Each structure stands twice: as structure tokens, then as C-alpha cells.
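Hello,

Following up on my earlier ticket. Below are the two sequence lines again, exactly as submitted.
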Amino acid sequence: MNRAEELTWDIQIDAEELDRLRAALDGYEEENGPVLPDAAPLIALCFDCSGECGSDTHCRHHFKY
Amino acid sequence: MLVLTEACNLDCVYCYEAHKSGRGMETETALGILQSEIARAADGLDIVLMGGEPLLRFETIRILCDFGLESGRCRFEIPTNGTLLTEEMRRYFAGRRGGIKLSLSADGLGEMHRKNRCGPAADLGFFVENWPGAPVRATIWPDTAALLAESILPLHERRMPVAVHLADGVVWGHQACEALRDGMRALTEYYLRNPDVRPVSSLYSPAFWEHLAYGMPCNIPESCCPPGSSRAVYDVDGRVYPCHMLLPVAAGERAERFAGCDSCVPDGMIEDGRCLRCRLRGICENCMGVNLLVAGDVRRCVKHELQCEATWVRAAEALRWFALGVERRIRAGDAVSAADVRAARRAIDFLSTNP
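Thanks for your patience. The regenerated structure is below:
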């Protein structure tokens, strides 16, 4: 069973609202110059294993920095 | 923390103390514990006097507080439903408000409080006057989640800080989560119109935007609030336990194995595979007391069985409030930093992807 089948609910965020939010951020960057992304993503999901390994280095807190 | 009594004058629907017997701590026992703690403490002591409803033991409270304050080493906090305050109590606590904080537990103003607490409401004015910065602690229950906004907004109107906690140990089903989402959206609209009002803590936990939007490291340990990590809890018979959720009044016979321990940090937690892969894992609080009450094992995480969708509702609405706030500031021409813009984009990315 994959995760999509497991879950019967979703975040339910209005797509039009998200588009409006992105437009506001785009407008900010047009006016103030581009906001550079971080050199490396601060948060990366860990899918190095299925989560069963118990490793402290990549699964314990799930996120890598 | 000293549990002065198991008795309470209310009968809240979400009370975790399922084994109340009405027992109380002898005043001599309580005083002996206080003297012992003062003697071995290197610094000042923060003492919590708990119940049941602790104000049922006002005479004991007065003896303990007089002794502790006289020592110059103690500060006291007394969580209370506030419904038993007499004039004598008001004078006593108001006269010592620098050393004693009464922490009000009330489920907002209105129907939610009446339904959850099965009893009267407290006089909020006394608490606002004496401890204006102390949050009112409200608990929401799945069956009354639809009353969230109408109960909390009047507290905001009175400029009272509020902390809202989801009832533990019960299943937050889809319908209750829909009600929670609707309530939080009404609160979000209010916060956007009133940016000087601080959103209720816990529901709008800063961890959501600090960690998921700004990418700050998360400091919540694998087992949130490890029992005994910073406090000892003395039961009514004077025995020490690592956490109030692990007392006999809450855990019944299963509490016996924790008697005499002032610390309990399990070797490792047993988590569901879905939790290990969840984007919220780093900030999803895990209560060992609830694990014991629900699954019979402090290590077996049960949050996903009870509050998974509710936690996602909280995270999504907190990030939505954050992103809408950045948008509003941009459109108003207010100062917005590049870090805010980056964080808002991360929040939007998060909201664009389902769990």
C-alpha cells in the first residue's frame, strides 16, 4: 500500500490562494531583485532507507541540515 | 511538582486522571518534601502545586508558600480552574503575586468551556489583573472543536494570551479535524486583521514556521518532554514519579513500575513506518505518558493513531498564516527581508504537497 492510498485526507489549501501568494513573492523579487535560494537546501527529506534502519545519522530526526 | 490532592470540583471530559480516589497529601509530608528539595537545590526552585484542583487544599498551600517564600529560594505556580477562589484566597495570592503565579485553566469563554468542563467559569478579571502575561490554558476536545474560534476570540478581545492544547489520548477523527481547520481559519483571519495579537501557542507553534519555513534546526527531542528530564513529581503519598502522566491517578496499576524514579528516558522509541517518513517527524511531539495510557508502553509512539491529521491541520494552518502575513506585508509596502521571502516560498511549497 503506498502513502497516497493510506491517507484519506489532504491539506486542503486553496490553489488560487497559493497562486496569489506566489504572485506576491514574484512581485517582491521583481521590485527588489531576486532572492537567491540557499546554497544547499536546508531541509532535505531523508529517503535513504525505508526508515527501519534505526540509524542516528539519517533517520533519527529524518531531516538533514 | 507536588500533587496536593486527587480531588477536583469539575469533571472535564478530557481529564486523564481516570483513577481518582480523592486522596490528598498530608501537609507534613508536603512540607518535608519542600524542605528536602530546598536543602539539595543548588539554585532557586520552581515548585508546581498540582491537583486535581489544588485550591481545595488552600490551607496546605498557604503553609507551603509561606515557608518557601520565606526561604527566598522558591517560586510557586498553581494551575487551577479558578472556580473556587474566595475573598481570602484572592487577598493572599494577590499579595504574593511576585512569588506565586496562579495559572488559569479555562476553555475560552462560552459554550466550549461549559461543555468541556461541566462546571462554572472562573473570574478572568482577577487573573488578568494579577498575572497579565500568563496565558489562559485551554484544551480542545474533538466533540467541541467546532466551538474553537467563538470561545477563544473573546479572550483575544480582552488581550489575554492563550495557549490551546489538543486533548491527548483520544482519537482526533476526520470530522473533528475538519472542525479544527475551520476554527483555525477563523482565528487566522482574526490574526491577519489584528497583527498585534499573538496567535495561540501550541496550535500555531513557532516550530512550524521556524523549522518548516525558515529551516531552523528543530530542538524537540525524539521523545518530547522526557519524563524526569527536568522535574520530579511527588504523588499524594509522597512517593516520587518521573511525570504526572505516570502517576497512579492517571496510569493506575501500571504506574507502580515508575514509583521511586525521578527520571525515565527509554532506550529508544518504537515508531510506525509512516512516522519515520513523515515531513513533520522532527516537530511532532511524542508524549510517553500518553503512550503508556494508550498502548501500555512508554516507548510505543501512538501519536499517529490519535492525532496525525490534527497535527497536519495545525502545521498547514500555521504555515498558511505565516505566508499570508508575508504577502500582506509585501502588498502594504512594509519591510520584508529576503529570508522572509525565502521562508514564505518554502511554506507555499510545503502547502502545495500533500502528506
